[in-house]
Protein: Aldo/keto reductase
Organism: Planktothricoides raciborskii FACHB-1370
Amino acid sequence: MEYNQLCDSDLRVSEICLGTMTYGYQNTKEEAHQLLDYAVSQGVNFIDTSETYPFPNPTKTQGMTEEYIGNWLINQPRDKLIIATKIAGVSPQLTWIRNGKNRIDKANVTEAIEGSLKRLKTDYIDLYQIHWPDRYVPLFGQPDYDPQWERETIPIAEQLEVFATLIKAGKIRYLGVSNETAWGVCEFCHIAKQLNLPKIVSIQNGFSLLNRLFHVNLAEACRLNHVGLLAYNPLAFGFLTGKYLTDIPQKSRLDLFKEIYSHYDQKSIMEATKLYVNLAHENGMTPAQLALAYVRNRWFVTSTIVGATKIEQLQENLESVNIELDEIILANIDQIHRAYPNPAA
């Protein structure tokens, strides 16, 4: 396991980050602790969660992921681990989080951070992330940007001032964003420099063989502003394992949450996945390992977030750190991409 500097921070994070959004819904506390123990035993020092997890997040389970991690964390050497969590952005659908009035303002951020600290049973968060922007941006399969959906938003300067107070108080160490745009990255960094406020050090956005849009303009924006990508969804909700090519396994995410992932049920995704699966098998690796090795080795990726509901899945995912893709395999990947560009974007 290698460790990478998270841009302008002093955090050295493992190249694989353990994602946890199934804890409390698909995974029991005991299973979650088993997964956490195994990941750490293999050199993972970076754990990502959110106040909204598990996902999907009905009222009765919201926050349970952080609770499960907290019950485990109290028995760990806290200074050896890097814990990242997130505050929910504006979402009228999440009525059980602060009565659906989520904003990235002082009142909401204060309540959110105190709740996360309590559930995680820790005094500080290493990386605190805005789960999605306070302002309008198209998210999670929504169509292109449309100005008519713009809404009143908390100014970025005001958001950063709140986080500055929390950093000064020692409750968070560094700030990151998630599901952000190139404009957002540049604006956060510009205003931070202009007003001498905390700068974002990371962005957590989707990136995979089926969704390489980060390459288009975010890669440039992040490189020039020293912001590291924490790549989530590197297996495209499990599609890139190949497990959905013939059937939908029981208790898989596509089985449990058909409506949420219905936009993945596309001919182009299936056809591209078949080609990636065949390429993996031809080169003596599993489809998941090919997909993860590709993401891990991109120059702009600081850490790749992997989630697993079973130890066997986590073992396979972590073994991908031993795989290097040669120029021939990379050329084959690019050939598939040209035929099926970003079908899961």
